[in-house]
Amino acid sequence: MRRARSRAAKRERIELQRVINSHELAGDVAREHHLYVDAAHRYQDALNVQTIAAHDRQRISEKLAGTLLLGNDPSRAGAWHNTLLNSHLTHLGGGEEAGHALFQTAVHFWITSKTEAALPVLAQGIQIARLQGNAQLLKRANIVMATFLNLLARYEEAENFLNAAGAVTDKDTVAIRRGYWGQKGFVATAFGREREAFESFDRLVRLDNQDAGIYNMIIGWGNYAFAAMRLGRTEFAKTCHERALLLARQHNVVWLIPRICLEYAWLLTQMGQLPLAYEYLTDALSYDATAPVLDEAIASVGIPLALYMKDDSTLAKCHRLHAIDLAFMSAEPVRIGLISVAFARLYGEQGHRQKARAVLHRAVEAMHNVVHAWDLPLEVARSGERADIPKARQLLTARTQYPCAAIAEAYLWLFEAFVDRRDGRTSKAYAKARDAVTCFEALRWNTCADLARSILPADQRLPGAEEHHEKPFSGTDTMLTEREREVAALVLKGFTNRKIADILSISPHTVDSHVNSIMSRLGIRSRHQLAYVLPEHA
Question: What is the pLDDT, as a whole number, of residue 524?
Answer without folding.
Answer: 63
